[in-house]
Write a structure and sequence with these properties.
The structure is a single chain. This protein is an alpha/beta fold and about 260 residues long. The chain has two domains: about 35-80 and about 160-258, P-loop containing nucleotide triphosphate hydrolases (Rossmann fold, 3-Layer(aba) Sandwich), CATH 3.40.50.300; about 90-155, no CATH class. Helices cover about 40% and strands about 20% of the residues. It has nine helices and nine strands. The strands form two sheets. A six-stranded mixed β-sheet has the order 5-6-7-3-8-9, with helices on both faces. A three-stranded antiparallel β-sheet has the order 2-1-4, covered by helices on one side. Helix 5 crosses helix 6. The longest helix has 18 residues, at about 170-190. It is globular and about 50 Å long. The termini are far apart.
């Protein structure tokens, strides 16, 4: 059997960036300029982490990417409507158990129960929460709540995943464990990721590329390609090559903030 070649439009769609910011600026009604002249792309199968000082506009980048904000200047093109968003807080409904919280977004998107039920179970299994389907948020640890939040977004089959410091409030051991789980999901699902974090080591460990932002108004001051292969061995965190790259990113962060 001979497979037909994709139409030119299909080829363009499959190779275009999922996220393409050109000279993006953001000034709020109160006069605060959060972003200035930001150029940033996220390709399919690319995991991009953004580090920068507090107040530099990192979360504003995500809000523009998600459509929650509109850039004041420049162009912000998003190449898909299948977007997952994981916030700093798990934002779970306290009266819903794990399964019904995971089903929520699919339910709001009018997916029938026969579709969203199996998809929710698939996502629950993927994040390692099988057996906890009936737990309420008050019965769960912080790490379990973030797994539930992640599973909820996975039910939408996102092509572009946006993460706003999702693991920042967790202890170090739980954070590293969830980093490992997120990487497994990234390798399996091949989405494009934009991840905001204050942790340089977390950014380097998770990413194919790390970008460094200046102080407000935020703009990109440096970009680092991460050379370590995927799937990533957790032991890479303790190597000299990893420490060297963390040091280089940290130096760029300090320089951009000065």
């Amino acid at each position: 059997m001979t497979l037909a070649s994709p139409a030119p439009a299909d080829v363009a769609a499959s190779t275009a960036p999922l996220l393409d910011f050109r000279n993006v600026a953001m000034t709020f009604p109160n006069g605060t300029t959060a972003l200035s002249g930001v150029d940033l792309t996220v390709e399919r199968g690319e995991f991009v982490s953004v580090v920068g000082p507090s107040g530099c506009g990192k979360s504003t980048l995500l809000r523009i990417a998600s459509g929650l904000e509109t850039a004041s200047e420049g162009t912000a093109h998003v190449g898909t409507d299948r977007i997952g968003y994981v916030f700093q807080d798990a934002t779970l409904l306290p009266w819903r158990d794990v399964r019904s919280n995971v089903e929520l977004l699919a339910e709001l998107n009018w997916q029938p129960k026969r579709v969203r039920g199996p998809k929710a179970q698939w996502a629950i299994d993927l994040v390692g929460l099988n057996g906890f389907e009936k737990h309420l948020p008050k019965q769960m640890s912080g790490g379990m709540k973030m797994r539930t939040s992640l599973a909820r977004s996975l039910t939408l089959d996102p092509e572009l995943f946006l993460f706003d410091e999702p693991f920042g409030a967790l202890d170090e051991i739980t954070r590293e464990r969830l980093n490992d789980e997120l990487l497994k999901i990234f390798v399996a699902q091949k989405f494009g990721g934009l991840f905001i974090t204050h942790s340089v080591s977390e950014a380097v460990y998770l990413s194919t590329k790390v970008v460094v932002m200046s102080g407000r108004p935020g703009h990109l001051v440096d970009t680092f390609e991460v050379p370590f292969d995927m799937p990533r061995d957790p032991e890479i965190r303790y190597t000299g090559e990893f420490a060297k790259l963390v040091g280089e990113v940290s130096h760029a962060l300090r320089e951009g903030h000065s």
